[in-house]
């Protein structure tokens, strides 16, 4: 079966197994529902890169300069404006998150229930529902086209929806060994909740 005919779940599982590293750009829109009508809320954009399992750098460039980075062991959130770094253990912080489903281990069925939800504008969509009850997300929609994810729809437990568009997706680029090592910027305040 060619990738073109593969369902969203089939394409996604193949992507997870065959894509060890990747990089690209994203645009994230927070949707707001006002009187039953969805409206676009704040928009942010930036770049991402990842290496399995559990290493990634998700960099917000607009409107705020922030970096969410994981080195396989710890999760770092750096807010440039506040000059503050929050450091958390990677383990549970990521297991059922959108980052885990894109960048984590290949053992998806352990953490998510996945099902195909059809084609919209030439994109095969699947829905992933976290198995853990403490996940901040109720459902994660993933749009697949030509074997790579092109979009995500993240619905949190408060009913809010974030729509993420992925573009300029490059599969399996090579990264240096220390690419995902986080260096705390000089003078930054470090928080360890």
TrEMBL record:
Keywords: Chaperone, Lipoprotein, Periplasm, Protein transport, Signal, Transport. It comes from the Bacteria. The keyword Signal applies. Its main location: periplasm. Signal peptide: none annotated. It is found in: Periplasm. GO terms for biological process: lipoprotein localization to outer membrane; lipoprotein transport. One of its GO terms (cellular component) is periplasmic space. InterPro entries: LolA/LolB/LppX, OM_lipoprot_carrier_LolA-like, OM_lipoprot_carrier_LolA_Pbac. Transmembrane segments: none annotated. Pfam families: LolA. Participates in the translocation of lipoproteins from the inner membrane to the outer membrane. Only forms a complex with a lipoprotein if the residue after the N-terminal Cys is not an aspartate (The Asp acts as a targeting signal to indicate that the lipoprotein should stay in the inner membrane). Monomer. Belongs to the LolA family. This is Outer-membrane lipoprotein carrier protein. It comes from Undibacterium baiyunense.
